[in-house]
Amino acid sequence: HRWLEEAETAVRQALKISPQASSHHALGRILEATGQPQAACSEYLLAIRDYPGYYDAECDLAWAFLNQNQMKESEQHFLAATRLRPDYWLTYNYLGFLYNSVARYPEAEKMFTEAILLAPDNVSPDGNLIGVYHNSGQNDKIPILVSQVHFSIRLERRAPHVGFQVVDPVEPASVGLETV
Fold first, then answer.
1. Which of 110, 122, 126, 166 has its CA 20 to 30 A from that of 97?
2. Contact call for residues 94 and 75 (beta carbons, < 8 A)
3. Cα–Cα nearest to 130, from 153, 117, 112
4. The whole model's pTM is what?
5. For position 68, what pLDDT does the model report?
6. Phi-psi group of 158: left, alpha or beta (phi > 0 → left; psi -120 to 50 → alpha; rest → beta)
């Protein structure tokens, strides 16, 4: 971890010369990597104070709170991040992860569904939504999700000037899935 110590020293020196939000953010990441989550949160908050609208600092702060089981604070900063980038799937995926981890399954489902709509070619939110269905005892929805999300709801990109077209649904049995 010597390189982390050197990086921390360098960033602290940079902050003395010219305090900048990006330096506070970088220091927060270093502190988090060295097992100092509260100090990391302080640096992320300074980054956000100095640069309101700092999306990456909001997300890192939310994760740092989540990792300390401070769910309310985590939710607050993930929600702030969704306001900053309402069209970015990853933030909704993060919120879904948070909600799933505290058994707020309807909210988790909503967030993962939004992530799927924003990034139809990314399978991460799909897998997370399957986890929500499993955790909430809604296993009957899993084959439906696999068949519908991957085959009927997915939007097929056409030429940018044409837009999108919905792909025809596929029966679960035709792709080797049992129906419930």
1. 166
2. no
3. 112
4. 0.75
5. 94
6. beta
